[in-house]
Amino acid sequence: GEITTTAYVDVINTARKVVREIGYTDPKYGMDYETCAVVNTIHSQSPDISQGVDKGGAGDQGFMVGYACDETPELMPLPITLAHKLVKKMAEVRRSKALKYLGPDSKSQVTVEYKDGKFVRINSVVLASQHTEEILDKTGEHITEKARKEIIEKIARPILGKLVDNKTEYYVNQTGKFLIGGPQSDTGMTGRKIVVDTYGGIVPHGGGAFSGKDPTKVDRSGAYMARYVAKNVVAAGFAKKCCIQLAYVIGKAEPLAVMVDTFGTGKIPEEKISMLIREHFDLTPRGIITELDLLKPIYRKTAAYGHFGREEEGFTWEETDKVALLKKGCVCPA
């Protein structure tokens, strides 16, 4: 990767520390923070890029998408919200030793049924977690039914509660076993499955990954601002759903286009919302960085459990502090 800085960073030991804190502390998981190889290929950014970026222009071309809806208190789609909560619960159960056999690698998926745009039920829940050999059955190819039920009871039930019914299907380690995980089993280039970082595929994605990029890269900061705008629009009561698309070109500060889509749920015209956005939000890269305070070391927490719908400190793009200004500029019909 490339970086523009005068600071010294102990890349090797920082990487080992992160690997340890994730949970790769034993060779049986396929990776151990003490013995793994760390290759440092960070170098300086091309001056051809920085000459436009340093003047406040966008660091790349492309379009970024932000979304919000009133399905959850976080103003996020329900399926991705539940999926993140499930993997977070898996980590909690593993770290507390409530299920000692769980390993650090895990993922989830939740399929939700809707009717006329409203939640009906959870159709299926997928849970996959790395584990030790102790929960394999006699064939050595599948986890035991006892372990499967424990995972559902200690992880899925507390999160999903009454959202599931007796027809909800659970798929726990569907391939049978998951002994080898982490980088040993599945690794490669960054930026894969990027909808996991955003909204779970319910709206388009601009295609740019977030992690590993500083806020001059609009792949990241533009997407954060688009979420900030969309969330404030929904929180202001202008729409039940709102998708914001911002288009940028490298070296130019102002976005080429701002698109608003409320999917027919808007209480005021989309043109009016677009006008309010341009009036109350600075959409230039420099303005975004200043508004959202993006030069702070806040990004580590975004590497897991999604970039949006988070209430922890540092997720400035999740604030709804523009609601009063937006409402002042427009009175919604009853």
What's the structural blueprint in terms of helices and strands?
Elements: E1 2-3, H1 11-22, E2 25-26, E3 31-32, E4 43-44, H2 47-53, E5 62-69, H3 78-95, E6 102-115, E7 118-131, H4 145-160, E8 169-172, H5 182-185, H6 218-235, E9 241-248, E10 257-261, H7 270-280, H8 285-292, H9 323-329
Parallel strand pairs: 1-4, 7-8
Antiparallel strand pairs: 2-3, 5-9, 6-7, 9-10
Cα distance spanning the termini: 52 Å
Q: Write down the CATH topology of the largest domain.
A: GMP Synthetase, Chain A, domain 3
**Tally of domains:** 3
Radius of gyration: 22 Å
Low-confidence stretches: none
Oligomer: single chain
Mean pLDDT: 90
Please bin the fraction of helical residues.
Answer: 25-40%
β-strand number: 10
Major sheet: arrangement of strands: 5-9-10
CATH architect. name of the largest domain = 2-Layer Sandwich
Structural class: alpha/beta
Series of H and E elements: EHEEEHEHEEHEHHEEHHH
Largest sheet: 3 strands, antiparallel
- Measured by DSSP, the beta-strand proportion falls in 15-25%
Approximate shape: flat
